[in-house]
Amino acid sequence: MSAVEALVELSEEDRMPDGNPDKRERFHRLQSQLTDRWQSIDAFDRQPRQILVVPSLSLDQAELKKVKGVHHYEERLLFALIRLRNPETRLIYVTSQPLHPSIVDYYLELLPGIPSSHARDRLDLFSTYDSSLRPLTQKILDRPRLIRRIKDKLHSEQAYMTCYNSTEYERELSLKLDLPLLAVDPDLLYWGTKGGSRQIFTECGIPLPDGSELTHSVTTLAKDTAKLWERHPELKRIVIKLNEGFSGEGNALFDLADLASVAPGQATHKERAAAIEAAWPSLGFQCDSESWISFAQKIEELGAIAEAFIEGEEKYSPSVQGRVTPKGEVEILSTHDQVLGGPDGQIFLGCTFPADDAYRMVLQEMGRKVGENLAAKGALERYSVDFIAVHQPENQEQPWDIQAIEINLRKGGTTHPFMALKLLTNGTYDSSDGKFYTKNGQAKYYRASDNLQKDAYKGLLPNDLMDIIMGEQLHFSSIDGEGVVFHLMGCLSEHGKLGLTCIGNSPKTAEEIYEGVVSAIDRATQEG
Predict the structure, then answer these.
(1) Which one, out of 128, 188, 349, 479, has a CA that is 20 to 30 A from the CA of 15?
(2) Mapping DSSP to helix (H, G, I), strand (E, B) and coil, where does residue 348 land?
(3) What is the pTM of this model?
(4) C-alpha to C-alpha distance for 220 and 225, rounded to whole angstroms
(5) Is 165 found in the same domain as 88?
(6) DSSP-derived secondary structure for 445-495
């Protein structure tokens, strides 16, 4: 469900139109309290504090249906249990369906320096017992008794709420609980759309691929695509992007090879646009369940843009993650090289940390510019910026062509593995070189995936995975500071899907650990 649809779904009483300044002012007043309530995760916090975690994927539900096991993605915020290292912190974690006890125990055992029983006593788990395809926050709002039980746990003036992404639903829950929301104001969500991202890149002077304005009309989109092709006759492919997508699933690739007869110089603009519109059903969708009929409907609902597809023999998809703190400070948190897959390499599968030495510091600088722009607009909390980096060895002065693709105003696929690294090592990110170091100065690297998926894994329960971890010795070694940590364990039984972060003291070691873990699970499942 999109942010716009979320507003429609809310009742008249709960909506916050421009004509209701009282609710808006109250929400802003609550958020202003975060300057005193929020502490950096690097700080040892001795204050009594309650943190409500609502890992709701409040995004377009039709788009989320493309992601196998997406209802288990609520587990991806379990890294928030790292806050239980602070002895006076209580965590309230809400999910659509109850978490398997083995999954919770697994994370608590990873906490360094804290007895798991002590941490467990300060963890409250709530569930809506609702597996329907609706955002978790909407399910919570539909259950006033559950809201009261959650509110009973929030008795401190140091409490606040955090989420996966922020919409009208999260803002409304914040108001009902009288609790500050550590997330971007939903009024600013435009800046995390494809159209809004392009505007910010232009304001920051950051290179970006040529593209069109946002439109909700397939006919106008065809005309805009024709204009884009006319500006760049050398284009081989064009990407059609839904304004709100998830993990690249909202992208479709338009191959221009079959339209040579209407290429620039061969036909009029009107003929070219008509041919493009007639060819829309041949779009290369990134999800096998997508069709032109459903995609066209999403264009009308969400809007879409056309963007030049960047070609290149040596091409990477790096990203930078940052945060605007409640005090308005911009912090760069990490950089990654994303591992992409799918039919045309558009779908996020995983990542490696940190991004390549050749362009890591350039990414940081561009990411900081975006963060400062977002902060000036009033944005808060995490953001990420995705790029395309193409090697151009013939250019000695600028060997890498780096162009910004989009901004995400939410926690994403790179958030969980980086926070898992912090949970396990208690180290810090050094922005001077873009690396992560433990307290004894050891640099750390990882290879992570959200999509280790095989049919042979189907039917494995979380308990079965724990047996495999024990039998194959797939532990994270606190002595060596190397090993693996798993997530998305709830996806295993139905979808044969698992997430993992493999941490090593070198990129090569992290990759070897990853390959070794996959081999060990394969071996265990083959043996039955």
Answers:
(1) 128
(2) strand
(3) 0.88
(4) 8
(5) yes
(6) EEEEEEEEE-GGGTT--HHHHHHHHHHHT---BTTTTBEEEEE-GGGHHHH
Q: pLDDT exceeding 90 applies to what percent of the chain?
A: 70
Q: Contact, 212 vs 308, CB < 8 A? A: no
In a domain? residue 224: yes
Q: How far is CA 59 from CA 44, 138, 386, 484, in A?
A: 34, 11, 19, 30
Domain total in the chain: 4
Question: What separation in angstroms does the CA of 226 have from each of 256, 262, 269, 280?
Answer: 11, 10, 7, 12
β pairing state of 443-453 and 497-504: antiparallel
Instruction: Return d(Cα 344, Cα 238) in angstroms, integer.
Output: 12
Check pLDDT > 50 for residue 295: yes
Give the C-alpha separation, 61 to 127, whole Å: 20
pLDDT on residue 293: 92
List of E strands, 110-243: 123-127, 160-163, 181-182, 237-242
The CATH number assigned to the domain holding 386 equals 3.30.470.20
Is 383:323 a contact under the CB 8 Å cutoff?
yes
Domain final position from 244, 275, 308: 308
**β-bridge partners, 160:** 51
